[in-house]
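Readers of this paper often ask what the protein records in our data store actually look like. Such a record has a labelled line for the sequence and another for the backbone structure tokens. Nothing more is needed to write down the fold, since each code stands for a local backbone conformation. The record that follows is passed on verbatim for readers who wish to inspect the format.
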Amino acid sequence: MPGFVTDAILLRKIEYGDHDFIISFLTESKGKISVIAKNAKKSIQRFSGALDLFSVNNIQCTFPKKKKDGLTILSRTDLENGFANIRYDVYKTAYASFWVEVMHFWLEENKQQSGLYNLLLFSLDALNQGSLSREVISLFFQIRFMSLSGFFPNIENCDKCKTPVDHIEQKKVWFDFAEGRIMCQNCIKKRSKYGMTVSKGTLKQINWIHTSDISRADRIKFSNLAIKEGEMLVEAFIPFYIGREFKSLQFLDRLRHEK
């Protein structure tokens, strides 16, 4: 039976009927795909331990014989990395769940996105290893996600007077979510209700991540203030731009408030 084999990160799994799952994967070769895992709840040999959220698997899929427009069938999975260190930490699990939820709702089906696949894999591996703080890794993921997806905002200069950030007199500027731009205090006539003030230092660090190579991620040095402010900014702007709220982000916020 014709089909394909590819590496894949599990983005979403929902029950379908009594025994099946419909699963969303981000694959290395085909982008996001939706497949059906038939009898997955009973088939221990084929799927045991391999169908957990954000796990990396080598999957084998086959195309349906009768219905050409039917879901691709997940035939076999081989677990390559379950990221155990993430699963034992509720905060890390919340961050990873947020990343895969963003990917699931943003990506189109069957459109190769090797850059986003590599970004998600890199971020999950860094989070699992603990090579950087989870907050910095999440900032890195979200900033590079915006860059690769083509909606990174203009944060280099005031959108009105074109004054570069370094030359703006005030310490803070206005970030407009609807326009995806910043404005200095001199140019703001009326603030949109969708936006926030942010310090120039935080914007400069965000822009550094935007323009730097992924291999330099371990050189990221954020102050505690910049981390907190940066998270507030990107975690507000991305849901606004995509046009939906994310349950995993709401759960993460509750964890933070319980600290």
In short: The helical segments are 44-47, 84-87, 90-106, 114-129, 134-149, 200-211, 224-242, 247-258. The CA atoms of residues 55 and 82 lie 5 Å apart. DSSP finds eight helices and nine strands in the chain. The mean pLDDT is 89.
